[in-house]
UniProtKB/TrEMBL annotation:
Location of the Succinylglutamate desuccinylase/Aspartoacylase catalytic domain: 33-185
Cofactor(s) listed in the protein's UniProt record: Zn(2+)
Xref: PANTHER family: ASPARTOACYLASE, SUCCINYLGLUTAMATE DESUCCINYLASE
Pfam families assigned to the protein according to its UniProt record, in alphabetical order: AstE_AspA_cat (PF24827)
Organism ancestry: Bacteria, Pseudomonadati, Pseudomonadota, Betaproteobacteria, Burkholderiales
Protein name as catalogued: Succinylglutamate desuccinylase/Aspartoacylase catalytic domain-containing protein
SUPFAM superfamilies named in the record: Zn-dependent exopeptidases (SSF53187)
Organism: Advenella kashmirensis (strain DSM 17095 / LMG 22695 / WT001)
Amino acid sequence: MSTGFEIAVPDLSAERLGNTDTPGVWAFDSGTAGPTLLITALIHGNEICGAWALKELLAAGLRPKKGQLVLAFCNLAAFDTLDVAAHDAARFVDEDMNRVWSSAKLDQPVTQERRRALELRKWVAAADWLLDIHSMHEPSPPLMMTGLLKRNVELAKRLGVPQHVIMDAGHKDGTRMRDFAQFGDPQSQALALLIECGYHGDPSSVDTARNVVAHFLLESGIVDADDLPGHWMLAQKGPQTVLQVTAPVVAMSESLTFSEPYQGMECIAHAGTQIGQDNDKPIVTPYDNCVLVMPSLRQLKVGVTVMRFAHELPADPERQ
Ligand SMILES: [Zn+2]
C-alpha cells in the first residue's frame, strides 16, 4: 500500500482568478439554450485531482456548444495551506466545506468555509448538472457517490464509469453540496454526482477525474466527443455494480479502531463479524455480504463517519 503523495501540486495562480465576479469561478456561456453544468474541484483543499482536471480543461480551451459550462475551484484558502508531507491538515481551514450546505449554516457565516460557500452559492443554485470531484484518504478504487435519488443513479449508469456506484444518504454532521437545494429535492430534475477518484496522492486519481469529467460533459450534450482532449476517455473496465449504503459507522470516541487495515470494498461474508471497536464496544457487520465503503481513521473525531456499510443492488433495481 502506497501512502506516498505522488501528484505535483498544481500552480493555480492564473486559474484562481476566474473570469466571473467570483474568484476561482470560470463560466462559459454558449449563448444557446441548454443545461448549465457546474464542475467543482477542491471542496477539500488536499484533493487536487479535480484541480488538475479543471486546469487542463481551461488550458484546452474547451467551450460548450450549447448551455453553459461553469468550473469552480472551491476551497482555495485550504488548498493554499497544502503541504504534501502533512496533506490531511489542508482538508479545510475552519470546518469541512462539504458539511455546510444548508440555509441554517450558511445564514451564520462564522467560518472561512461558510463564507466561501456563500460566494459559490449562486453558481450552485443555478446549476442543472453538478459533478463534484473528490479524492480519498486511503488507497481505494474510485467510487461514484449518487445520493439516494434514482435520477442520479440513472445518470451514473449512463456515464458507465467508474465501476463502483454508491447510493448513500450523506453525513449526519452536515449537508453536502451535492445534496443542497435543488439537488436534494425529489421533485426537481437537477442532477448531481460526487466522484471519489481514489487516494489523494495517487496519479491514477487524475486519470479518473479526467475520464469522469469527459463522460459527464459528453452525456450532457453541451460538447461533442471531438471537443475533448483525446486521451481523457478511458476504456471501461467491466460492468458497473451499484451498492446501497445502509448505515454509516459514526465515531463515538477517538479510541475507535478497525480490526484489519481495511482499504475499502471488502465484502464480509457473515453478519455479526467484528470489524472494529469503539469505546470498547465491538463494531459488527449487520448482514451477510456486507461491503465496507471508505474506511478511514485519518479524520477521526467524535461524530465523524469512519466507514459505511453497503450491500450490492441487483443490476436493474427498477425490476425489483
Ligand atoms: Zn473530499
